[in-house]
Amino acid sequence: MKKLLLSLVAAVTLFSVRADEGMWIPMLIGKNYDEMVRKGLKLSKEDLYSINNASMKDAIVQFGGGCTGEMVSSQGLLITNHHCGYGNIAQLSTVEKNYLDNGFWAYSKEQELPAKDLSVIFLERVEDVTAQIEKATRKLKGDKLAKKLDEIKKEIEKKAEQKDKYVANVKEYFNGNQYLLLVYKKYTDVRLVGTPPKSLGKYGGDTDNWMWPRHTADFSMFRVYANKDNEPAEYAKDNVPYKPKKYLPINIGGVQEGDYTMIFGYPGRTNRYEVSEGVKLAIETVNPSIVKIRTKRLEIMKDHMDKDKSVYLKLTSSYASISNYWKYFIGQTEQLKRLKVVEEKAQKEAAFSKWAYKEAPEYKGLMRDFAKIYSGYAPYAKHSTYYTECFRAAALSKLGGGIELLYKELEKKEPNQDTIKKHVDDLKKGRKAIMRTFDKSTELELMAEMLKMFYNDIPKAQHPDVYQNVVFKKFGGQGADKTFEDYAAYVMSNNMFVDSNAFNAFCKEPTIEKINNDAACQMGMSFLKNYKDHYEPTIDKFSKTKKELSKKYVRGLMEMNEDKLFYPDANSTMRITYGQVLGYEPQDAVHYDYFTTLDGFVAKYKPNDEEFDAPKELIDLYNKKDYGQYVDKDGTLHTCFITNNDITGGNSGSPIINANGEWIGIAFDGNWEAMSGDIAFDKNYKRTICTDARFILFIIEKMGKANNLIEEMDVRK
Questions:
Q1: Is 383 annotated in the active site?
Q2: Annotated catalytic, 189?
Q3: Is 117 an annotated catalytic residue?
Q4: In the prediction, which pLDDT does 489 show?
Q5: Is the pLDDT of residue 10 over 80?
Q6: Which of 138, 371, 386, 453 is the most exposed place for a label (fewest CB within 10 A)?
Q7: How far apart are CA 689 and CA 671, in angstroms?
């Protein structure tokens, strides 16, 4: 194990000529630094990551649990993507004060709007705890390993949180071959400072999503607040702007092709060590199932959103999230096929097996083991996907299933009242979150459609008993549309969740009888029981076995390729990626330039169009060519640019940083031709799409008239 740990450190401190690939752990930057300097970096190692002094990592936050943000002033001013702040902006909006559609700018700190349930975390320190975990879990497998691993991780986290009064997470790297403890400070008083209208922040809509060329002003601004000691505190009027250890100066001098670029951020998840069997299953079963279900969900939601502005504001954040990954899975499938990723991985696996048989008996038969577990899982992969996408998509089935733990406690001869209270409190929290985006008419149609899709697309032998015992028994006509519509209406009229009085009455006096007579609970628990009794054991066993095999496979790959560059998959922890501003050729005889301009924005402009409308003020500024200090030397206003940095979901909102450590733009998307990137990186096509800093500041100053924000930031040329 000691030898392996040394090789893991080496794996993240070596570089090949393809330095644009890889999401690197900041604390293990090692020899990466020399390569970064050769590429153009002008900062010291300590400028990038330091435990004892302020460094670049102190300017970066994980925003809202799923995005990245960065400090851009000494007064806690934060910038992230518009689509990252989208849900918070929608939640703050009303039909009368529609900040989502019209934009919002605070001209003083008193005008800033508290964003409910929004938090950011700052990374404080990182510690390698691999040896401690390996010692505690040595020789364990399957359920025993999973249980012990969970216990030891919680123990380490709890100790770190008690000692430092911070939030702590133990994360695995290299598929479980390394474990790091990450300690964060969490700030929960975060306020909206500014956002462009949705027509700019989401310009191009679903049509342009995941595409280049792009012209989107995908940014929003918030401010982090703290108590008078600069420590985390719940929202209070007397809180003060947080004083960051480090913030990023902004350079509006513009970018050129070939310029050095660096990104700090929190990439969510990649799966680049996936085997060919897994990729094949994704292409043939999982991805098409997700796309089919989400197509119908989006169709239903949009129909209701278009009819009522209040429904639109309720559902728009969920719609955007569902739509984003609907298109993602379409693109991923297309590119996995086009780039022949299954075949490429199969070739590498064959080479691995050949090496194992000759030089490393420990890994003999490993690929055969992968094939075996996938053949056992494949018949249930569609069920698992439909269970997640259909059952959990319908609010009432999700709430109904969520009552299971309370039901089990109430069934006991001597129920524990403290346990009952805990489950009731959890139920209240779950309902509160769901009802925030609940619309009765939309839910009614969604429920009927999801029930129908599950019934028609999943083998009858895998159906929960609610279909035969309730749906068809009460409403007849097996498989007919009206059957599911009538049943959905019955559930809507006979449940405790929609009516607050009925729900509160249940919470005061929960009983088995009330649950049994509740149609939503009946439906939800039937789906849940069917899944847990018949499919979860198989799926759980597959997941645990795959985890063990994957750990072994990655370890074997490192031993097989001792001189080759390795980096861990993304896992929602801070990473650095670096590269350069660079155009590309998506196909024969086509070249994409590295930047776009407001000229291209206006060329796409369609008045009153859902995706390509724009504010009159912007068109007026364009016609006057009133770009101020943000005009490029070519006389145009640059809107977006692309780099070959390696990012994924979670990097949204990440800063694009130049060689001098200055903020030059914000990452917000990847390109269509490289949507296989979470599974297989492609050096020819992979690009990061960024909004240019000059376009952002132009909107703040010229459209938003928020000179107070421009003056607060350190803007340079």
A1: no
A2: no
A3: no
A4: 97
A5: no
A6: 138
A7: 7
